[in-house]
Specification:
The complex is a heterodimer of chains A (272) and B (233). Chain A is 36% helix and 22% strand. Chain A has 272 residues and is of the alpha/beta class. A 6-stranded mixed β-sheet of chain A has the order 6-7-8-3-9-10, with helices on both faces. A 4-stranded antiparallel β-sheet of chain A has the order 2-1-4-5, covered by helices on one side. Chain B contains 9 helices and no strands. In chain B, helix 4 runs antiparallel to helix 9. At the A-B interface, helix 3 and strand 6 of A face helix 5 of B.
């Protein structure tokens, strides 16, 4: 029942759409990614959870090539991203749609121009662009904001406009960076519904980063726990929530004592 | 970054509308500031030269001094410094806040090269607009000198104008001033964009980038001015 509500079934037997292979990254002495490997099947939705400051956003930026790993690589459709030249990388990035934490809308442009931005760079007529922008804003349930400026929108609306911009070019892979952090429970659910709606329409592979367990359960086919630069555990939602793994238990139950607690807790702020 | 900007400047697609928008911001919107700066510079130049030259009865050369100082040196340098303060700071602040709010990452993620979209139009606008502003500045400054000399100090207008143009060589004085202006435009825009592009650390970082864009931009202009002048004359 839940699988039907979530959308298309992941094609687990097919070659992975997106694969992270032994990613390592350090900023100065601080090791953020310490040998991360995972893959996402076509049409699969992977949710990566973990405490704040464990490098979730850094991991997501590696997947789309905004950050270069110190070692290891990312494969998109079995193609090594870092073996490509800049123009080919730019082409590969067009398979992606990414939504940023605070939306990252271009504040010098209206909502319409923000969503139309990726479309204007492909050969489409103005009327095609207008129709597609309208369609995308309908998918995220924001039909009447196209003339507004990003500064006139609430946080939740800005993120949904960010979604609309991310799906405008019908990407094959969608990345969501903390889509509902800082939002109230109702808006959180609205955002989750938007993600499921986009999933149904696009049949894209999705990687979402969050520390919200109910959201992870709702939108994920698989949940992975990231901590200390490694993936400690991954499983389908039901299995994940029932797991005996002490780290998973601590995160799911939200207790201060446990393997995820850092001595003296000198975590960087999220997204840094 | 200079190399990357040059490479992306010649690669399609060309966003001419964005180029034009930046040209309006750098050029058209700077007209009042450059007008006042050069007008009063021309006026004070005439006043000071008169005070000095009157001591050895050389008042008739005021026009020449004003024209030569303005076209060769003061109009290009002062225009560049004023535009650096006005536009360079805005460029660094705008690109810097785009960096800290992940808008530059969003550009890359959407398959658009940020250097091509943000830096190329600004640098092109600055290189092309500064010489035009300086042409205006030359004219306005000379008019300011004329006003003071003729209206305030009672110089003969015909002799003044005659003297202004007698020793003024178009290629050697005016054109070399414009070449300097174009170079200054490229320098301040590139420095401002680079400072903005590599901004780190939130609002404080944007503030630091803006300050550093104006300070290092202005200093680089003054240092380059000496070497360019040595090279061009």
């Amino acid at each position: 029942m839940e699988a039907i509500r979530k959308g298309p079934a992941p094609q687990k037997d097919a070659a992975p759409k997106l694969e992270a292979r032994d990613l390592h990254k350090a900023f100065g002495p601080k090791v953020v990614l310490d040998g991360i490997s995972f893959s996402v099947a076509p049409a699969e939705s992977l949710v990566i959870v973990g405490p704040s400051g464990t490098g979730k956003s850094v991991l997501l930026k590696h997947l789309i090539g905004l950050l270069r790993p110190d070692s290891g690589t990312v494969l998109v459709d079995s193609q090594d991203f870092w073996a490509l030249d800049a123009l080919a990388q730019s082409k590969v990035r067009q398979k992606f749609g990414m939504s940023f934490q605070e939306g990252a809308l271009f504040d010098s442009m209206s909502v319409f121009d923000n969503v139309a931005f990726p479309l204007r760079r492909s050969r489409r007529s103005p009327s095609e662009i207008r129709d597609r922008v309208k369609e995308c804003l309908d998918i995220v349930h924001l039909p009447d904001v196209s003339e507004k400026r990003p500064s006139e929108l609430s946080g939740g609306m800005r993120r949904r406009v960010g979604f609309a911009r991310a799906i405008a070019r019908e990407p094959e892979i969608l990345l969501f960076d903390e889509p509902n952090t800082g939002l109230d429970p109702i808006m959180t659910d609205v955002i989750d519904e938007s993600i499921l709606e986009m999933r149904r329409r696009l049949r894209a592979s999705i990687v979402t980063i969050t520390h919200n367990i109910p959201s992870a359960r709702k939108i994920g086919d698989r949940i992975a726990l990231l901590f200390g630069g490694k993936i400690l555990f991954q499983a389908p939602p039901a299995e994940f929530l029932k797991s005996d793994n002490p780290a998973v238990r601590q995160f799911v139950e939200g207790t201060a004592e446990g393997p995820l607690t850092v001595e003296g807790d000198e975590r960087r702020s999220e997204g840094a | 970054m200079l190399g990357r900007t040059a490479v992306w400047a010649v690669r399609p697609p060309y966003d001419f509308m964005e180029w034009l928008r930046q040209m309006v911001r750098v050029g058209w919107d700077s007209i009042p500031v450059v007008f006042l700066t050069t007008l009063f510079t021309g006026m004070v130049l005439a006043l000071q030269t008169y005070n000095g030259f009157a001591r050895f009865h050389a008042e008739s050369f005021i026009g020449s001094v004003v024209a030569l100082s303005l076209t060769r040196e003061l109009a290009p340098v002062l225009t560049a410094l004023m535009v650096t303060g006005r536009v360079g700071s805005a460029m660094a602040a705008e690109i810097g806040s785009m960096r800290v709010t992940e808008q530059i990452d969003a550009l890359t993620a959407l398959g658009t090269e940020p250097v091509q979209f943000l830096i190329v139009p600004r640098v092109i606008a600055a290189i092309s607009m500064l010489p035009l502003l300086v042409i205006m500045g030359d004219a306005v400054g000379m008019y300011g000198g004329y006003l003071v000399a003729v209206q305030l100090l009672g110089a003969n207008p015909v002799v003044y104008i005659d003297n202004s143009f007698q020793f003024l060589h178009v290629r050697e004085d005016v054109v070399s001033g414009l070449v300097k202006a174009a170079a200054f435009g490229g320098i301040f825009a590139l420095i401002a964009c680079v400072r903005g592009y590599y901004t780190e650390g939130g609002a404080e970082g944007v503030g630091q980038s803006t300050t550093s864009a104006v300070v290092s931009g202005s200093l680089t202009i003054l240092v380059t001015d000496f070497f360019l002048t040595k090279l061009l004359y």
